[in-house]
Amino acid sequence: MSSVKKPENADRELSLGLYLAFGLIVLFSGIWYRDSLMSALYSLEATFEQLDYWGPILLTLIASLWAILCFPGPVILGFIGTVYSHQPWVGLAVAVAADSVAEVFGFLVARHLGREKVARWLAKKPWFQWLEEQAETRGAYGVFVIRMMPFFPNSLANYALGLSALRFGPYIVASILGSIPNLAIYVMGTAGVVHLLRTGLGMDALYIASAILLITTIVLIGLQSVLKRHGRLADWKPDSTLEKKIDDTI
Prior knowledge:
By secondary structure, the chain is an all-alpha fold. It has helices at residues 9-32, 34-50, 54-68, 73-83, 88-113, 115-122, 128-148, 154-162, 168-199, 203-230, 242-249.
């Protein structure tokens, strides 16, 4: 099989653009509108603190719905990192819980409720057959590696993997473990920038905040490159007949 680039370029540009845009907006708002931004941040944090243990539950439900609807992940992860900038481990726990709920929901819907509609919907995605092949040939290991890819459309993959022959147990374990590094980079990176805004933005803090954004971006790109080279997944090759095959088999 000829070596063809895996289908992450468009998703990488979207994810990086959203993450950097979110970070830069927060960063420069802290420079130009620090008092207003600090007031908004304190109000946001106070709102969730007043909710006590219901705060993380509410945010988990919101983030779960966000992922179920396949909205861009970096946006909600940046929001979680902002809300829990003073408790980033709580934010990470919320992100993992929400992501897990979406992974379970998408898989079970595709497998038991809307298999035909999901198959027709995803047949138009250029990575769909490649993903199914990884699940078939690599099993849980393939899912684990794919979940670690920062720029793969994992919200859509929740539904796509429900159409595979992979059993639910190995799927959910591999999905949760593979997603944690990815989620941690987004949530912790945002929390670091917001924490600097809270403590005051002198020039030193500005440089540090910019460095956090830059390092986070480099780590995301580096992780994707390492997984592409050493993840032992097959190269992606588009199949223009896939949609017809699904029409014939459903």
